[in-house]
């Protein structure tokens, strides 16, 4: 079987995503019904972390165990990667000892180099530029609640970070429109966006970006690796908090999502994230189910 990697959202076609979403539904139902399902028995996932995580590690490690396999955690600080071993050499060795690898790192070029030397599928657990697994979980969560995302409007409030770039790719594939409001100085890097701009609209006013939206989503103002910018970001992002007034401009049945962890009172108020339109806990859980479907697909192809 040809090795297939999942490094950014655009790596899969709509047909593949439709398959994955259906598999995630089935796998989630088995999980809720306590049905044993071990398609990856005796298979091994290696998880390489350069950036720390809660949800990524837990969802991949628990997911691989629930599929009957084994997950091995490696932190670059505790491995030869942290002592200068070339990425290509590490990929060659690791991929000869396991069936699939997840990497959570900084620059996207790191995971691309890793995948180029790997003999097994590589999954992006997060890079500075892309976070495809999270957006896959978000799309799945929306479809669970609202049946379809095609033709809908999704609003992004915050800086142009890895989540936004994955949302932009998802919009093109699934056929929904993205309203984007970023503070000045934290705008889109058009080198990471397709030349077709018809599927998104930019707004200077975050409240206007929310008008008529079916989903409003945001992220922390200071992503991991940018902590030294925190004070400047707090000042620049004034007015970009998702509050009840902004949500009131969205569609009456609009959902609110956040990839977590959240800083209540900064990018979102407690009233919104803990309110009836919020689906952040289902969204977080669904990382487990869509990633199990992804692992199954990458290791076994269609079942």
Structural notes for this entry:
The chain is of the alpha/beta class. Helices cover 39% and strands 14% of the residues. The strands form two sheets. Strands 7-6-5-8-9 form a five-stranded parallel β-sheet, covered by helices on one side. It is globular, with a radius of gyration of 19 Å. The mean pLDDT is 95.
Task: Please sum up the structure shown.
By secondary structure, the chain is an alpha/beta fold. The chain contains eleven helices and nine strands. The model has no long low-confidence stretch (mean pLDDT 95).
Can you give keywords for this protein?
alpha/beta, globular, single chain, 39% helix, 9 strands
The strand count comes to 9
Strand order of the largest sheet: 7-6-5-8-9
Percent strand: 5-15%
Low-confidence segments, given as residue ranges, are none
Would you tell me the structural class of the helices and strands? alpha/beta
Largest sheet: 5 strands, parallel
Write down the overall geometry: globular
Distance between the termini: 14 Å
Order of helices and strands: HEHEHEHEHEHEEHEHHEHH
Helix content: 25-40%
Number of helices: 11
Summed over residues and divided by their number, the pLDDT gives a mean of: 95
Rg over CA atoms, rounded to whole Å, is 19 Å
């Amino acid at each position: 079987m040809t090795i297939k990697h999942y490094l950014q959202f655009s790596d899969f076609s709509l047909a593949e995503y439709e398959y994955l979403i259906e598999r995630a539904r089935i796998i989630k139902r088995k999980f809720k019904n306590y049905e044993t399902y071990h398609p990856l028995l005796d298979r091994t996932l290696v998880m390489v972390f350069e950036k720390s995580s809660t949800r990524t590690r837990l969802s991949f490690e628990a997911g691989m165990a629930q599929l009957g396999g084994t997950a091995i955690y490696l932190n670059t600080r505790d491995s030869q990667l942290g002592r200068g071993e070339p990425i290509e050499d590490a990929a060659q060795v690791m991929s000869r000892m396991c069936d699939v690898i997840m990497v959570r790192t900084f620059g996207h070029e790191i995971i691309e180099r890793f995948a180029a030397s790997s003999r097994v599928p590589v999954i992006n657990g997060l890079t500075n530029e892309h976070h495809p697994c999270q957006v896959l979980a978000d799309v799945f969560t929306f479809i669970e609640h609202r049946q379809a995302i095609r033709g809908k409007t999704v609003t992004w409030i915050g800086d142009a970070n890895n989540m936004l770039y994955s949302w932009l790719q998802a919009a093109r594939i699934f056929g929904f429109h993205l309203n984007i409001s970023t503070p000045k100085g934290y705008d889109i890097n058009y080198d990471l966006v397709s030349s077709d701009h018809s599927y998104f609209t930019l707004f200077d006013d975050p409240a206007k970006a929310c008008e008529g939206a079916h989903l409003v989503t945001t992220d922390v103002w200071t992503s991991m690796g940018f902590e030294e910018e925190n004070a400047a970001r707090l000042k620049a992002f004034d007015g970009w908090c998702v509050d009840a007034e902004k949500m009131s401009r969205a569609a009456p049945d609009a959902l609110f999502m956040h990839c977590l962890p959240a800083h209540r009172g900064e990018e979102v108020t407690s009233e919104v994230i803990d309110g009836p339109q919020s689906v952040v806990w289902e969204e977080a859980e669904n990382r487990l189910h869509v990633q199990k479907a992804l692992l199954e697909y990458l290791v076994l192809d269609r079942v």
